[in-house]
Design a protein that fits this description.
This protein is of the alpha+beta class. Helices cover 15% and strands 34% of the residues. The strands form 5 sheets. It has a 5-stranded mixed sheet with strand order 12-16-15-14-13, with no helix packed on it. A 4-stranded antiparallel sheet has the order 1-2-3-4, with no helix packed on it. The longest helix is centred in the last third of the chain and has 33 residues.
């Protein structure tokens, strides 16, 4: 089995392609990029692992036997540059990759990427492209969350933005450098129209964080997302958040308006409450005046 360079902050996602004739649908995955601490370099190598024949019950003290790694070297299109902290998800034979701290060959300093890459694995050779989107796109970031929300939308949340003064040390992320900014903004990518939007988020919004974990049930009727943990620049979270979409229909709005209609007084609930409050205040003032008179009479009798 081919050895891969050790790495961290890489990404791996399932693949549904059989181009390399070794893969079984649902039993293979694609690995891209990461950071090699031993060599202090960013990576942009592309690997496929077929684990359909893996037997985890044997040789538990070493590599799992039967898992076969293949290095992809003849892919076409603009392969993303070396990077760490990016996200990659898959739908069928298409993989989506966004963000990450990267350094191109012609760059002296590292930057954070804001491009959305697509890797199509259903053709030969595998082909990279940069997806041009409509709407307000997410800012450049790393260590964010990205997952499918239903079959046609991609959810993107949070992450870490790097200031220009910090980009020189983006490989090490040393604590004594200028602080980075943790994010908690939410974006949705609608795949049929290739457009980004920032949906209104109600209730309690997760505080800014990076390095969180996200899971989706990919339910077509009522999808939900679970976000757990993450870091900001000072605190490590473990709180879970559940995200789901709720729609108020015209019928619901009509019922709400009907509920607020006061037929007896012809007033809105706010005006009715103000009128009742004024009546109570007047009654209390009258009672206070009465009690003050009684108290004064008692003092004279003493």
């Amino acid at each position: 089995m081919i050895r891969r360079p050790p790495r961290s902050t890489h990404c791996i996602s399932s693949a549904a392609s059989d181009v390399y004739k070794r893969q079984v649908p649902g039993k293979s995955a694609v690995l891209f990029g990461g950071f090699s601490s031993a060599k202090n370099v960013l990576l942009n190598d592309l690997w496929v692992i077929d684990y359909s024949k893996a037997n985890p019950e044997k040789n538990l003290d070493s590599d799992v036997q039967g898992a076969d790694w293949v290095k992809v070297e003849n892919d076409a299109g603009p392969r993303p540059g070396p990077r760490r902290g990016h996200c990659m998800i898959s739908s069928g034979t298409t993989l989506f990759l966004f963000g990450g701290a990267t350094r191109e060959k012609n760059q002296s300093e590292a930057t954070v990427d804001s491009n959305l890459y697509i890797l199509e694995t259903g053709c030969k050779p595998w082909t990279w492209s940069i997806l041009k989107t409509l709407g307000v796109s997410p800012s450049a970031r790393m260590l964010h969350c990205m997952e499918f929300y239903g079959p046609t939308q991609v959810f993107l949340f949070g992450g870490l933005s790097i200031s220009p003064a910090r980009e020189k040390s983006v490989l090490s992320l040393e604590e004594d450098e200028e602080p980075c900014k943790a994010l908690n903004d939410l974006y949705m990518l609608h795949l049929p129209t290739v457009s980004f939007s920032r949906p209104f988020a109600a209730n309690f919004i997760p505080p800014p964080r990076y390095g969180a974990a996200v899971a989706s049930d990919r339910n077509e009727d009522q999808p939900m997302l679970l976000i757990v943990g993450g870091l900001n620049t000072e605190y490590c979270y473990i709180d879970p958040f559940l995200l789901k979409e709720e729609t108020i229909s015209n019928d619901t709005e009509w019922k709400l308006k009907l509920h607020h209609l006061n037929k007896e007084y012809g007033e809105t609930p706010l005006k009715e409450s103000l009128r009742q409050a004024k009546d109570i205040i007047a009654q209390n003032d009258s009672r206070i005046t009465e009690l003050e008179g009684i108290y004064s009479e008692l003092l004279r009798q003493e």
